[in-house]
Amino acid sequence: MLSSDQNIQTIRELCLNLKEYAELKAESVQVGLIRKLSILVTALIVGGIAFVLAAIIILFLSGTLALALAPHVGGTAIACLIVAGCYLLLGCIVYAKRTAWILNPIANFIGELFLKSDESIKEKLDGTE
């Protein structure tokens, strides 16, 4: 009888340890997910800010280019059309290369973020590869 009581106590302790392990593992997964999501949101915010700043810079440079071209091409309207045509051409090139230039890098970033270990992500973000 004594052996059976010890077995039951050992099984009870084992079940409690397994329950505690499962809770800790779930908490670890949550912390890892929050860490990776915060990296993703930070990248999106920094990318958005960089996009807005680049758009403002491009707007001013476009106006400057149009004004600089105006005396050489016969007027401001024609210069603005030339600049718009350049942007249309650039837009067509970006659209044609969207998979290689936009989709694949974003997919690689998200894949590495969620599928690689935390150490390799930290090295990549710090630039110490």
From TrEMBL:
Superkingdom in the source lineage: Bacteria
UniProt entry keywords in alphabetical sequence: Membrane, Transmembrane, Transmembrane helix
Parts of the chain that traverse the membrane: 37-61, 73-96
Protein name listed in UniProt: Phage holin family protein
The organism of origin for this protein: Alloprevotella rava F0323
